[in-house]
Amino acid sequence: AAGEHLFSVLLAIKHNGAVDKTQVGLRAIVHRLLKTSDPVLNRLPREWLHMLLSRVRAPNQTVADFLRRSAGIPAAFLAFFQAEAEGVLRTLLPLGMQALLDIVLEPETPEAAQDESLGVPKVHALNAMRQLFMDKQMVREMAGFCAQSLESAIRNFSSRHWEVRNAAGLAYASLLERMVGFKNHLTGSKADHRSRRSITGEEFFKRYPSLHGYLLEELGRGVAQLSGSGSLHPSLQPILALLSRLRPSAAGAIAQDPLSPVAFAAVVERCIEHSSLAIRRSAARAYAPLVSADDLPATLARILGGLARRPQPSNALHGRLLQARAVLESAAFTDLDEDTLRALLEALPSPLVGCAKLGRASHTRAPPVREEWFVVVAMALVIRDKAGELQDQQDEQQLLATPAAEQAWTELVEMEARAACAEAA
Length: 425
Fold this sequence. Notes:
By secondary structure, this protein is mainly α. Helix content is 65%, strand content 0%. Helix 6 (72-83) packs across helix 9. It is elongated, with a radius of gyration of 27 Å.
């Protein structure tokens, strides 16, 4: 009677404090019932879980039913799943999670798009999944559901109901933090610190292999729609955000591996020159982690070398410079060996000097392009300083492969000095 009362109260109240206290009581009772040898009492938690799932699927629900992130419904799921003892085969968790995923992945028919009440069960399920993935006590237990849950969240970005898209966005953000870690596209010491706490693209897709094919296909669909009709596919930005959270793969990563993140590079690069500034920035941040340490010199030489070949639209120039900047920032806060640094010092200065006209107002009318070119030069000089620190007591010029490269670096330093003087004036 006490458990049924707490369960019914949890589904009725909306105050966060009351929800938390009621959840603690329900969890204690369910834990006790699961340990009892009485079969009648032992199956009560399973019956209550089925009642909870029926409440989630209830017809004719309205917006008021998911006030405060579905109120006590996520807390009820959490109470049931936390109550199962560690080290014992769990039965409630797989049953409940599979039912939630079935609700979230249910196809949205044209009739459902017109009926607001038909989207409410998905909102409840997504809010419950978000709460479960945010809970620190359930990290290990929820790891097996991450891939399918991430896919379900991305699919619901295309829902015609705003409430479902909003709940999917919140669930997706929680999943990103749980699966990948923190942001790593900041500059300065924070970027270095946070990037070490995330995982590489190679590790991510080995941990969640089913996501490689799905994300690649969905990203290709989004880029095709962007290139065709020009409209933004709902899943494009979320996938770019996921890729930008990864760290570049270490040297020696095999590009031919079927789960290699390099497969995404060509698709992401198609967004680099888009007319939307937000798309260009997101694509540039997503592209940088896809370049392994071995490919850094050749990739940067290709990007920068293409800037001086022919007249290009300002959006294309700006996008390529954003791309080069993101790759350079990634390299600046990655531990590179001496051979890679030497190759970078040889590959960077000549193409930068070759497109130096992008930094002159007489040649480039778009201020963002000029500004971004000087940022790229500054990041290249950061790489040069990093090489100097690596040598300790050695002469920095020993890392330069040719006198021509040394001369080009000198020109870049002079250009940056002149730009600083002009800005100060």
